[in-house]
Amino acid sequence: MNEARFSSTKRAFAMTCGVQIGIGASSATIWSILTDAAGYGRWNSTVERLEGVVREGETLKIHVPGTARVFTPKVTGVVVGERMTWADGIAGVFKGVRQFELTPRPDGSTDFAMSERFSGAMLPLVGRLLPDFKPIFEAYAGDLREEAEAREPRQLKAGGVR
User: Fold this and answer.
1) Which of 56, 91, 125, 143 has its CA 20 to 30 A from that of 159?
2) Residue 16 near residue 8, CB atoms below 8 Å
3) Of residues 64, 80, 68, the one with CA closest to residue 137
4) What structural domains and CATH numbers belong to the chain?
């Protein structure tokens, strides 16, 4: 899984987008990047800045390039070094739930997966206003891989990502 793989599904009241990529760094390194709110604007081209503390129960403020809108997801489902969820919106009306998952591989690299599910009665109306998530998700995954591999340069065992 050397290149980012994007997927999406759409139904009347639900839409899911996701990306997966292999990263030549440990899950600990990737987790430290994903949970360093202050660093997002430096490495992530899809986030202008991230305010708050990335930990269970906290609410973040995500500023994205090209819009004044600020997203305010709550961090839940944290299993340190493995997965977390960021959720924003009102269930049944319009809600976005982003999940992050890290899966260590035997060679020391990590499979990164990120998905986001939008749902609710307003999705048919709001859905037309949503951006094309393919380039956004691919950039997010690629930026994360570049940052993690720069922090942890090493030779992987045979069959690794590099």
Assistant:
1) 143
2) yes
3) 64
4) 5-151 (3.30.530.20)
Helix (H, G, I), strand (E, B) or coil at 3: coil
Instruction: Tally the residues of the chain.
Output: 162
Model confidence pLDDT, tens digit, residues 51-82:
999 999 999 999 999 889 899 999 999 999 99
d(CA 13, CA 21): 28
The answer to whether the beta carbons of residues 18 and 113 sit under 8 Å apart is: yes
User: Which residue ranges in the chain fall short of pLDDT 50?
Assistant: 156-159, 161-162
pTM for the structure as a whole: 0.91
Structure tokens at 93: 């009306």
Amino acid at 59: T
pLDDT of residue 159: 47
Torsions phi, psi of 23, nearest 5? -125, 130
How many of the other CB atoms lie within 10 Å of CB of 21?
23
